[in-house]
């Protein structure tokens, strides 16, 4: 693993249902930054994230996380994985959900208050989660993932289905978490969200097209719009 890397992937291949899903992926994700994993739906983003958190059977290759093999016991309190569907109880309030998961993790009571502040849910702490908006429920799921103060957060399409205002609020929260020293790997199929990331992993059809920053992607393709820049990469790959 390269110095300063939170994630190191080398020669990763995955098959699901007998069909290849990931094709010899190799890359590094730096620590303490927001890395966007972007590409169209069905390109293998979720499978890659499952491999990184250690719950995906791989055919070949190696995945190291924070200096340990993905999924190994030392990582259990250091890595949090937030799936697309909110993983919280709709009939419990925000506070009750967080208190429950804090007890499961053995975290002190003060972590609940700290997390409520981090995810900006102070006005909703006593409301049932089932009555909240989609963006607020996503923040509750994020809050449960933050209780153990993870060093790496893996977020699978956390803004899917949200309106632009709620998406912006979530990205502001992600930036605040990264500023506190955590590493975030955030997947999305919405290319305009790439501007919120420090670095981009751009995928298509189970392959890694490029590793770029938003600035270098624009410079490389000569396109100002990130969606147009991504399409230019696809055309470039097809012509190679």
List keywords for this structure.
34% helix, alpha/beta, six-stranded mixed β-sheet, 240 residues
Describe the structure.
- With 240 residues, the chain is an alpha/beta fold.
- It is built from 7 helices and 10 strands.
- The protein has a 6-stranded mixed sheet with strand order 6-7-8-3-9-10, with helices on both faces.
- α3 packs across α4.
- The radius of gyration is 18 Å and the shape is globular.
How are the SSEs placed, and which strands pair?
Layout: E1 5-16, E2 19-30, E3 34-38, H1 45-53, E4 60-65, E5 68-69, E6 79-82, H2 94-105, H3 110-118, H4 134-146, E7 152-155, H5 164-179, E8 183-188, E9 199-204, E10 207-212, H6 214-221, H7 226-239
Parallel strand pairs: 3-8, 3-9, 6-7, 7-8
Antiparallel strand pairs: 1-2, 1-4, 4-5, 9-10
Strand content: 25-35%
In helices, the fraction of residues equals: 25-40%
* Number of strand elements: 10
If helices are DSSP runs of H or I spanning 4 or more residues, what is the number of helices? 7
What's the helix-strand series? EEEHEEEHHHEHEEEHH
For the largest beta-sheet, the strand count, sense and barrel status come to: 6 strands, mixed
Give the overall silhouette. Answer: globular
């Amino acid at each position: 693993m390269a110095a300063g890397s939170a994630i190191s992937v080398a020669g990763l291949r995955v098959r699901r249902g007998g069909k290849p899903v990931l094709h010899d992926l190799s890359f590094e994700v730096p620590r303490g930054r927001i890395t966007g994993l972007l590409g169209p739906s069905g390109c293998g983003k979720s499978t890659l994230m499952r491999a990184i958190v250690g719950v995906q059977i791989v055919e070949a290759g190696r995945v190291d996380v924070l200096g340990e093999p993905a999924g190994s016991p030392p990582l259990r309190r250091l890595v949090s994985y937030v799936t697309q569907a909110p993983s919280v109880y709709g009939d419990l309030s925000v506070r009750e959900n967080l208190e429950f998961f804090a007890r499961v993790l053995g975290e002190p009571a003060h972590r609940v208050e700290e997390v409520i502040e981090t995810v900006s849910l102070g006005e909703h702490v006593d409301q049932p989660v089932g009555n909240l908006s989609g963006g607020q429920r996503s923040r509750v799921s994020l809050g449960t993932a933050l209780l153990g103060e993870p060093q790496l957060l893996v977020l699978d399409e956390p803004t899917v289905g949200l309106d632009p205002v709620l998406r912006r609020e979530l990205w502001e929260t992600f930036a605040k978490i990264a500023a506190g020293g955590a590493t975030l790997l955030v997947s999305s199929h919405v290319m305009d969200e790439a501007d919120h990331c420090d670095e981009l992993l751009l995928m298509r059809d189970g392959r890694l097209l490029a590793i770029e920053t938003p600035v270098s992607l624009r410079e490389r393709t000569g396109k100002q719009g990130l969606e147009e820049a991504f399409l230019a990469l696809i055309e470039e790959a097809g012509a190679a």
